[in-house]
Each structure stands twice: as structure tokens, then as C-alpha cells.
Amino acid sequence: MSFEERNTFTAILTDLLVIGLFVWQLTSRTQLGAFDGPDGFTHWAQLVLVMIGVSILASIGLTILITIAFRLFTGKATPPHLVDERDHLIRLRGTQVALLLASAVFVAALIALALGCSLFLTLNLMLAAFAVGTIGGSLTRFVLQRGWV
Amino acid sequence: MATQVTNTIRRLRFDADEMTQADLAARVGVTRQTIIAIEAGKYSLSLELAFRIADAFGKPLEQVFTYQRP
Questions:
Q1: Cα A92 from chain centroid?
Q2: Quick one: pLDDT band at residue A77, thresholds 50, 70, 90?
Q3: Mean pLDDT for chain B overall
Q4: Which percentage of chain B shows pLDDT scores above 90?
Q5: CA nearest A6: which of A57, A58, A74?
Q6: How confident is the model at residue A78 (pLDDT cuts 50, 70, 90)?
Q7: Interval B1-17: pLDDT, tens
């Protein structure tokens, strides 16, 4: 596993963890009525900001854990910090897929709003656009790095 | 990322005292995964990297890479 592959693997795990936390927090707090009333959107924005902080910390923590796991399983300190031309091309493809997916879900959110869905659902869909784009981009990178396509 | 360019890298590695993919990767400054992808015809490499690989074997470019007309 190369340096870039390990980074992508870490990103996928972090994305899944953070998206899972987001979904869990949003659904549980919605059921409790935390986003009802005039301050609902304020609470929603505060939760999203807190979760962004959590995602940064989770990313750092998982990177450390995976570095330790890599050392335990392979006996090597870390893969060589080498990023070559193929890695750059794969990053570009991943970014293209991420932007495409995020844009598609963003437009879906706008269509939902235009069709009369609530602003709260639209905001959550816009948040989902970033989540779908991020995970889609990471998975694309991993598939290309492993040479499965 | 598949390519119309075929190559003889695998045979050249074998002829060069069974040079490993990791050895070649280190010589030309790329990852082993990139060498694997090039050998399998799954990656269209840059002209500069093609020259570096040919140079690593001490061969002219055309003895390492061949363009296959589609």
C-alpha cells in the first residue's frame, strides 16, 4: 500500500465515521425537536460547526491509529512519502467525481425546494451533497489507485 | 486510464538480473503501484517518465514502448 493509498483509505474511514455521526446527531435531535421553533436553524448551524470540528479531530486520530496499525501489520514505519504523476492524475479524477456528485445532489436540493419541500430538508440535502461528493471522490481515488478499473 | 502504448518492461526487468518492480520504481522515482499499472497497460505515462524508464534499462525509447494503432 502506497502513501497515497493509505491516505485515501484513512479519508474513506474518516468520511464514513463523520457522516455516520452527522446522520445520527441530526436524526436523533430532529426527533427530540431540537430544530423546531424560531431558533431551529441556529441550532442546526451550531451542530454542523461542531461536527466539522469533530471531523477534523477524527481525521487526525484515525491517521495516527492507521499509522500504528500499518506498522504493526507490515513492520515498516510508514510507506515512502512518494507522490508521483499517476497519484496526481488520480487526485484530479477524484476531485472531478466529487464535484460532479456534490453538484448533482445540490441541484436535487434546489429542485426539492422548488417543489415545495421545507427549508430544513433542503439544508440537510445541501449538507448531504458535500458528504456524497466527498465519499464518492475518495472511493473513486481508491478504486483507481488499486487498479481495479 | 488505459493506454494504446504497449511496453516490454517486464521482459527488460527479467533481463536486467530480474530487477524487481520496487527497484525500478525507486530508480525512476515513482511508486511500485505505478510500475504495476504501466506494465499492465492500465496507465498512460508521461513522456518524461517513459524516457526515465528507458534510461534505467539503457535502451532507446522505441525498444521499451510501442504505440499500438487502435
A1: 17
A2: low
A3: 92
A4: 79
A5: A74
A6: low
A7: 667 889 999 999 999 99
- Distance CA(A101)–CA(B56), nearest Å, equals 41
Q: For an interface test with A, which of B3, B21, B27, B31 has the most A Cβ atoms less than 10 Å from its Cβ?
A: B31
Tell me: pLDDT of A114 over 80.
yes
Contact A87 B31 (CB under 8 A): yes
Total number of residues shown for chain B: 70
Residue of chain A minimizing CA distance to B47: A85
CB count within 10 Å of CB A75 equals: 7
Question: DSSP strand E in A49-146: where?
Answer: none
Q: How far apart are CA A60 and CA A65, in angstroms?
A: 9
- If one counts every other C-beta atom within 10 angstroms of the C-beta of residue A53, the result is 9
Per-residue pLDDT band for A103 (boundaries 50, 70, 90) equals: very high
Give the minimum alpha-carbon distance from A85 to chain B in angstroms, rounded to a whole number. 8
A81 DSSP assignment: -
User: SS3 of B2, please?
Assistant: coil
pTM of the predicted model, to two decimals?
0.83
Write the residue in A3, A84, A149 that is nearest to B34 by C-beta: A84
Closest chain A C-alpha to B3 CA, distance in angstroms = 12
B53 touches chain A (CB under 8 A): no
User: Cβ-count burial of A125 within 10 angstroms (0-12 exposed, 13-18 middle, 19+ buried)?
Assistant: buried
- Binary contact (A2, B33; C-beta < 8 A): yes
